[in-house]
Amino acid sequence: MLNEYRIMDADGHVVEPPDFWKKYLEPAFSDRAPYEDETPAAERLLHQAARFGLKGMLPNPARNMKIENEVVYNKISDEFWARGLWQVVKNYTEPAIRRFDPASQVKAMKKMGIDVSFLYPTLGLWVLAIDTMDPKLAGALTRAYNNWLRDFCSYDTYVLRGVGAVNLHDPEEMVPELCRIAEFGWKAVFVHPTPIKGRLLCDPAYEPFWSECERLSIAVGIHEATHSRLPTAGADRFSTRFAMHACSHPLEGMMALLALIEGGVLERHPGLRVAFLESGCGWLPYWLWRLDDLEYKNLAWEVKDNVKRKPSEYFRRQCFIACEPDEPYIHEIIKYVGEDNLLFSSDYPHMDHEPEIVGELIELENRLPKRTIQKILWDNPVRFYGLSE
């Protein structure tokens, strides 16, 4: 709690230890665990890390990660990773020294005034986003991640809330794993917005998954990962983090929302709750306006079996979006979309996270009513995640 506001973080992140795959993978897959092969570039970065006592403590996506015989290399400059590592060291020295263990996670949340934090992956976002991966290996990695996260959250089950992974590489495995994590008491799963093995989120193969999410009242967070090995927006024409990060999250979020509407997922599952995370909210009014006033107005006949109301009505009924405190148009977005669909997220401890982010949002009191801020900080995340309080 901060300044009398109850605060729920709709999108925080864990930093998985690099060796957890081997520890948690089922024996049949243990010899296929991802491992890290240091390149000369990585060695230079690790030398820098060693100066701060961090050698071996942080997973480093600038290193080659080998799965099967395929090398997955993130084409990012040495300078970017050097700067990124320094940013982590500067802002999160104590958590980094503690290897971002659950105790440091809870301490960081309390320092920010966050009461409850829903946790998404870091390393897992990349590992599970390799289009050519063997579907059965993807399933084993998914189960390993969920088991590790369950143990991580057991340190403090009130503050630390797990968001489960599902295996989009093998749709037949999605419902069993969804039911398994529901038995953990978890309230949400995450999916990539990007097509996996050619399937959009509205693919018929995923229909049982959407049905079961609705039946179990499991929320779905849509979360992109820049530099994934999927056909991500912008990846076919840019190679810098600057450009690819700018494109991937908002553009993939826009297309994921379109797929859920145009493909009839939201029409068929009115009780399904979906959130678009880490993409900002500025794209939303434009996208809803375009889908309503241009596409639906003129082309509703083409999608009449799946889209039976304005796209904006689907969003207001069952979708949510995370906002950033410094987005200059939040007031206008609330006027257009309403105040019931915006979520607060810290993105701790990733690049987008600002240590004073909660305070920045509360400073909006000079622009927004306190009631609206409390909705963004607590009431709306409670509704999205289907909590009783």
Can you lay out the helices and strands and say which pair or pack?
Layout: E1 8-13, H1 20-24, E2 35-37, H2 40-51, E3 64-67, E4 70-72, H3 78-91, H4 93-97, H5 102-112, E5 116-120, H6 123-127, H7 135-153, E6 160-162, E7 164-165, H8 174-183, E8 188-191, H9 207-216, E9 219-222, H10 241-262, H11 265-268, E10 274-276, H12 283-299, H13 311-318, E11 319-323, H14 330-337, E12 342-344, H15 357-362, H16 370-384
Parallel strand pairs: 1-5, 5-6, 7-8, 8-9, 9-10, 10-11, 11-12
Antiparallel strand pairs: 2-3, 3-4
Helix pairs in contact: 2-3, 8-9
Please summarize what this structure is:
This protein is 44% helix and 12% strand.
Describe the structure using short key phrases:
12 strands, single chain, 12% strand, 389 residues, six-stranded parallel beta sheet, three-stranded parallel beta sheet, globular, 16 helices, alpha/beta, TIM Barrel
Report on this structure.
With 389 residues, the protein is of the alpha/beta class. The chain is 44% helix and 12% strand. It is built from 16 helices and 12 strands. It has helices at residues 20-24, 40-51, 78-91, 93-97, 102-112, 123-127, 135-153, 174-183, 207-216, 241-262, 265-268, 283-299, 311-318, 330-337, 357-362, 370-384, and strands spanning 8-13, 35-37, 64-67, 70-72, 116-120, 160-162, 164-165, 188-191, 219-222, 274-276, 319-323, 342-344. The strands form 3 sheets. The chain has a 6-stranded parallel β-sheet with strand order 7-8-9-10-11-12. Mean pLDDT is 86; it is low at 38-65 and 69-76.
